Amino acid sequence: MTRFTLAVCAAILATSAHAQVTDEDLANDQSDTSQVVTNGMGRDLQRYSPLEILNKDNVKNLVPAWAFSMGGEKQRGQEAQPIVYDGVIYVTGSYSRLFAIDAMTGKEVWQYDARLPEGILPCCDVINRGAAIYGDKIFFGTLDARLVALDRHTGDVVWNKKMEDYKAGYSYTAAPMVVDGKVIVGNSGGEFGVVGAVSAYDAETGDMVWKRPTIEGHMGELNGEPSTMTGEEGKTWPGDMWKTGGGATWLGGSYDAETDTLVFGAGNPAPWNSHLRGAGEPNDDNSGDNLYAASRLGIDPETGEIKWHFQTTPREGWDFDGVNEVVAFTDRDGNKRFGTADRNGFFYVLNREDGAFVSAHPFVKEISWAEGIDENGRPIYNEANRPGNPLAAADGDKGETIFAVPSFLGGKNWMPMSYSQKTGDFYVPSNEWGMDIWNEPISYKKGAAYLGAGFTIKPLFEDYIGSLKALDPMTGEIKWEYKNEAPLWAGVMSTAGGLVFTGTPEGEFLALDDETGEVLWSFQTGSGIVGQPVTWEQDGEQYVSILSGWGGAVPLWGGEVAKKVNYLNQGAMLWTFRLPKQLASVQ
Ligand code: CA
Known about the structure:
This protein is mostly beta strands. Helices cover 5% and strands 35% of the residues.
C-alpha cells in the first residue's frame, strides 16, 4: 500500500463508524487505558488508572488542552463522570442533558436535551452523574425518571422508557451500568416515600428484564411476571409503613465480576422520624430494623434475586442513606474484599463472597450517634443521640432536638472515593460536620416531602469542613489528611503515577502525592468542582478531564454551612488537560 492509503486506513480506524462497545471492553475498562467506558473507570469502581505517563515528577507540566461550556441558562451542579470512547467524550449535564464532544479539539459533536415536564421532584439539585455506553448506544436517566438510549454517533433517540412515576416523587440521577447486555439502574426519591428498587432493562429494546424492590414485602418482577417477594412482608416494619418505606437506590451500583454480583446500596427508610418505624431500642430486638433500607445488597444480575445483604444502620434515624459505593479490591494479604465509606461515618470492609462483615473504623471525627460497631457489624447505638419522639414531647409536635455527628449529608456523601492498587489505600472525600436535628409528626401524601424531621447543619471546626483522607482498609489508619475550607463534593481518582486527583468547591482541580497528601499541582477552573475526574491515553500522551460547575445538595440543604459558601459562583465547563510529549521528561 502507498503511504497515502495507509494514512487513510489509520484515520478510518481511529473513528470507525462501526466501532462497538463490547462486554469485553466493559470488563477490561481499567486495563485498557485508551478509553473510559464505565462509570468508576471499571465496574468495581476503583477509579484507579494504571497510567504513569503523568507522574509526581512531571505533573507540574500538565496544561489545559481545551474547555467546553455546557452553560447557557442551565447551570447548577455538574456531577457527571465523562465517558471516553472512539475519540469522543460523552458527558451528562444538569437538567438531564447529554453532550458528545470531540476529545481532541473540544468541539461539540451533538447535544441532547431531555424535555422535562413541569412538576419534577428532584430532592437535591437538578444534577446527573453520568451515562453508560454499550454497542453503538449511550444510555442515561432523566429527572422525570425515564431511561433514554441514544445513537452514539448522532444523538438520535433509539428508545425512551418510563421507569417510574415522577409525580410520586421518583427521579433519576445516577450513571446506569451495563452488565451482559442489560442496563442496570436504581431510583431516586427517598425523601418522598418512594420504594427503592434495582431494575434491569434490555439494552437493545429497552424492555424491563427484572425489578428488585429494596423494601421488605414488595414483589419483584422477572420477564414481565411477578417473581419473588423481597424479604418477608412487614417483618422488620410496623403496620403498613413498609409500603412507602424509602430505601431509594439513588447512587447506582457496582459489579464484581469475580462473584458475578451486582452491589447496590439502599437509602434512608422513610420517613426520617424513626419513632414511626419501630419501638424500643434497636439493640434489644431486630423487629424494627426496617430492612433493606440503609443496607448494601448483593444481587444476581440474571434474575434480580438478592444474594446477601449487609445493613449499616438498622432503624436509621439521621438520614444515613446506605447508598455509598461499594468497591471491590484485594487486600495486602490477598483477601477479596469490598470497601465502603458510609454516610454514618464508618468505613466498612466486607467479604466479597457473601457480604459478611469483616471490620469497621470511623473515618470522620467526633461521631456521636454510635459508640462504635460491634463484632457482627451492628452499631452500638448512643440512644440519647437519636432525635426525640414528638409523641413524648409536651406539645406533641416537636421532639427533643439533639446535636448529631456526622450531619445528614454524611461523613461521606455520593462523591466517589478511589482505591489505589499502587498503595493499597483508599482516598476518601469526607466532611467534618454535625447537625441539630429534631423529629416532627408526618403522614404520607403522594408527591409531598415525607421527612418528619427538621435540621440545621453546622461545621465542627473553625477552619475546615472538607477532608480528603488516605485510609488503610486493613487497619482503618488515616495516613494523611488534606483539609479544605468548604465541604468536599467531588469524586476522587488515583493513578499508578502516584497521583490523587480531586476538586474543591472553591474551584481548584488538585493533584496530590498519594503517599503524603502534598499538593503537587492545581488549576483554578472558575467554578466549584463537584464532578468526577477521569484519565486516558491518546497518541502516547496522558489526558485528564473534570467537570466544573458548583451546585448539588450543599447549597440547598447545608444550613449554616450553605450560608458559609454562598459566595461560590455557578458554572458548567468540561476541562480537559494534557501532558505534552515534549514536557513529559522535563523536571
Ligand atoms: Ca436520604
